[in-house]
Each structure stands twice: as C-alpha cells, then as structure tokens.
Amino acid sequence: MSAAEKREARTGHAELMDKVYRHQRHIYDFTRKYYLFGRDRLVDGLALKPGARVLEVGCGTARNLVRIARRHPDARLFGLDASSQMLITAERVLSGAAVRAKLVQAYAEHLSPSLFDEPDLFDVILFSYSLSMIPDWRAALRAAIRALAPDGSLNIVDFGDLKGLGPLGESLLRGWLSLFHVAPREELLSALEGQFGAREGLVLLPGRYAFVLSCEAARLQNKSF
Fold it and tell me: Which of 44, 66, 80, 95 gives a 20 to 30 Å CA spacing to 87?
C-alpha cells in the first residue's frame, strides 16, 4: 500500500468512527457498562507516582480519565482518540466533572508526546477496549512503547479470544461485535500469554471473555506484536 493509500485509509477510519459514534456517544457509557468488563479493575489498580503523566489511547467519552482523576487528583491526564465526535463528549464530561486533561484527535499509531506539545515521555499508557478497534493495532502498541518512560507501564484491557464461551456463544458475540467494527485480537492475547502469567500482570476474565494486563515498559522492549 502506498503512502497516499495509507493516508486515505486512515482518513476513512476516522470518518467511520465519527459515523459510528455520532449518536452512540450520548448513550455510550450507559450501554457499555454491561459488557466492557475489567475496565474498573485496571483503572483502580493503577499504581501512580505523584504527578504521573497518564495517557489513555482511545479515550472515548473520558469516562476512565475522570475515574483516574478522582483516585489520583495530582495526575496529569492526556487522552487521544480518532473520533472527533467522541472528543466532543469527552470535553463535556471532563468539564462537568471539573477534571483537566489535554485531548488530541489523532491515530494511535502516530502517538508521541509531541502530539500534545509535550517534551516528556508518559509514565502510564492505557488502552481500554481500544486495540480491538484500531486497524493497525501492532503499530499502535509499538508507538505506545516508544512513548513510555523507561520506568513507565503499559496497561491494557480488551476482549480475549472468547474460547471459553463455547462455539455458539463465541459466534454470537463475534457477530454482534462486528456491528461496531470490533475485532478481538487473538494474536495479541496469544503473544501475551507466552510471556506473562497471572503473577506477572496478566489476568484472564471468565470464559476468556477479556484480559487485563499491567506491565513495565522494559518488559515490552523489542517485542514484535
């Protein structure tokens, strides 16, 4: 694919996300709480040093950023999302909660501190059910690892491979998720299981429905996802 074709594909994805969330953003948090499991477990488990620089990739409505701010009021918060429509809602949510965060519309694979006009790397980067919606999720992970401070941490919660739900349950859920352009990243979970265990920060939810990972940046260097 040429550079021009890649730019066109990225532009098309942003337009798709705006189309998907133009109306859904108004009911997103209410509806997603019934099936985006593990988010609070990950967010509440973040161990942040004072003044930590925390970035959520695919921040959506800023629901997680607000929760982080309530637990860590001195954290410096950043959010990135491909959808301008979602960021409209995020700005409103942050304002209503009196939480300050710097938001940017951009693609995850372009992630860097410079997108936010910041010179320093991030202490914590969070992906909450966003990798399953990012077309080039491998590039997004590589960009996140480059943007992490040497002592920083990468934190992910997303759909698993669904194998514990049985053939019918898996088929039905995959079909439903596809309506929202969501695709569980089985290759990612397989790679993570090959390196991490429960004692090392990887947790599988029942039915392999979802997984939660928190790990140090150093452990992910030179990994090929």
Answer: 44
Count other C-beta atoms under 10 Å from residue 86's C-beta.
Answer: 26
Mean pLDDT, contiguous 10-residue spans, the chain (225 residues): 41 54 46 66 92 96 94 97 90 95 95 95 96 92 94 94 92 86 89 78 92 86 62
CA 73 to chain centre: 21
Report the relative pairing of strands 148-159 and 210-216 from DSSP bridges.
antiparallel
Look at residue 177 in the predicted model and tell me its pLDDT: 85
**Token duo for residue 57:** 């990739």
170 touches 162 (CB < 8 A): yes
Rounded-to-integer distance, Cα 200 and Cα 187, Å: 19
Residues linked to residue 102 through DSSP beta bridges, in sequence order: 78
Q: How far apart are CA 57 and CA 10, in angstroms?
A: 16
The token pair at 17 is 């996300």
39-to-35, 42, 43, 211 alpha-carbon distances in Å: 10, 5, 6, 10
How many whole angstroms from its chain centre is CA 203?
16
